[in-house]
Amino acid sequence: MIVSMVAVAAVVLFSGFAIILAAPDLAQIGIGAASDDPVATILSAHFGVGVTRPLFALFGITFFAALVAVQASASRLVFALARDRALPAAAALSRESKQHKLPVVAVNAVAACGLFVLLCSVVGDVYSFLIGLTIGGFFITFTIVLTSKVVSHIRYGWPRARFSLGILSLPTAIAAACWSAFQTVNVSWPRMNSAPWYMNYSVPLMLTALTLAGVVVYHSRRSYIPTVSDHV
Questions:
Q1: How is residue 225 annotated by DSSP?
Q2: From CA 120, how far away is CA 125, in angstroms rounded?
Q3: Which of 45, 62, 100, 106 is closest to 81 using CA atoms?
Q4: Is 119 exposed, middle or buried (CB count within 10 Å of its CB: 0-12, 13-18, 19+)?
Q5: Contact, 203 vs 188, CB < 8 A?
Q6: What is the DSSP letter of 87?
Q7: Tens digit of pLDDT for each residue in 69-109?
Q8: CA angle 223, 84, 117 (to 5 degrees)
């Protein structure tokens, strides 16, 4: 896990520096630039359209593979929650196919949700509004996990393991949680003066809507969710 995290950090840093250094003009890839894709602008400037288009085909295959992976993981999560009767229509969503023993209904439900978001791209503002949560949700998720880790560390101490920062473990966890919380506020902060108000507040609005939906679903299914004593 540690090696994978270091490797990902190295790749991201290398890619970021490569894009910055390879940019012929930083103004062309900045906010408000003519092109919405800085990578496309840089590749076209250095290699020309003839080389860039085949590369875009490879990018398309990569994105498709990522889409399949996300759909698979999301459908498994839906299936697991439905199996514990924590979702509406749990009986259907937890059903497995007889031939392959796969949660076909859960997979199709996730695909339908993804198709809905894709169709929303026809209306630019709606699509951008929905995408706002993916940006803020990334940092919100990490903030919740890191904050929970800090609380657990204060209450129960740092667990003994092969790798440990020792006395620096708690300050490191606190610094990580604070940084993640700062980034959450940063990406949620309204800064587009020319955009409608709901676009500027897309992250907190979407977070509030999903939180309310989650609360409603949880309280409506709370009595159906098995507890630890039910499995003993």
A1: S
A2: 9
A3: 106
A4: exposed
A5: yes
A6: S
A7: 888 888 998 998 888 888 888 888 888 888 888 888 898 99
A8: 105
